[in-house]
Amino acid sequence: MKLSDIEISGRLIKSDSLSHDPNIGALSIICAVLRKLGWKNDLVITKHGLKQRHIKANNKFILIANKLDIQLKYLTLPKTEFHHDYWHYDKTGEKLGTIFLHIVVENFTKGYSIFENHAGSEKGYFITATGEYIPLAKYSDGEKYKTGNKDKIIHIPDLILIDCGRSEIINVEGKKYQFSQNGINKLNNYDFIEKNYIKKYYPNFTVKRTVVLYGSRENKILEIEIGFLLNEYGNLILGIKAPALFREAIKNLLDFWS
Question: Cα–Cα–Cα angle for 254, 124, 232, nearest 5°?
């Protein structure tokens, strides 16, 4: 190491590959900030746990390392070109509906999310009534799950919204339009989380379950279990029995821009 180098330690190995996502992001951001601040000398990642065989040219960290001129101590990085289409707007994902609704609720009502599990991001924490952030368990019985009882997995919604004014909590399952029935079926799986988390921390709230869809060219919803549809044209379609919080959010959004 030269005195002009900056060394940053961070483990990058997971499951015998360069796939330690939290640290890939953290180390990339640290190095990006240093470059943005004008650091032009070497940036060297140490204590990464990797061997030369783990280094693949198409790995996302290797792409970033080439772009930011990052080195991995004791290893040689292949030269790669950053794909121009690597980053793109998702126009097909099933969570586009739930992400949209999440943003609208928090910006146009007094409701907000107490848990989210949006695609492409880390699973969030469950927020209790006292503001405590707690992780949701993965299994109701970890030992039985490991021995083959897959019923012990805990099914969690993609989004949990709270409507304090109406004392309601809404469990939301997000799906593409063509998989709407699958989303409806999944609504039957939330007994454990409602009993052990929602009712425990919000005992005076009623709980609703609904499906939020993205896609298709449909302009109507027939199934009562579906609360909201964001279609391919950007039309906002409320379900027959959409939660009042959904109706308030969409009304306030449209009124704001009218």
Answer: 35
